[in-house]
Amino acid sequence: MTKKKKTDFYLLKQKSISEGDLFVTDYIQTRKRLDRMSDDLETLKLQLESIKNEKKKIIKLFDEE
């Protein structure tokens, strides 16, 4: 027998769902989306800093000659 993985959406499978239950599932989805977006933003910031540093090195090489 395989165990079913519990998800945050078990509430949606119930026949009667209260407004509070819907709020909880929406909150969980929104929080996960926000966490992913925050991680993506941090990655983009690091990439931008890396590109800025590379440009500075290139400019310095040309200025020295």
Folded structure, characterized:
With 65 residues, the protein is mainly alpha-helical. The protein has 1 helix and no strands. It has one helix at 19-64.
Topology of helices and strands:
Layout: H1 19-64
Largest sheet: none
Mean pLDDT: 77
- Report the C-alpha radius of gyration, rounded: 23 Å
Count of β-strands: 0
SSE succession = H
Quick structural summary:
With 65 residues, the protein is mainly alpha-helical. The chain contains 1 helix and no strands. 0% of the residues are buried.
Any descriptors?
1 helix; rod-shaped; single chain; about 60 residues; mainly alpha
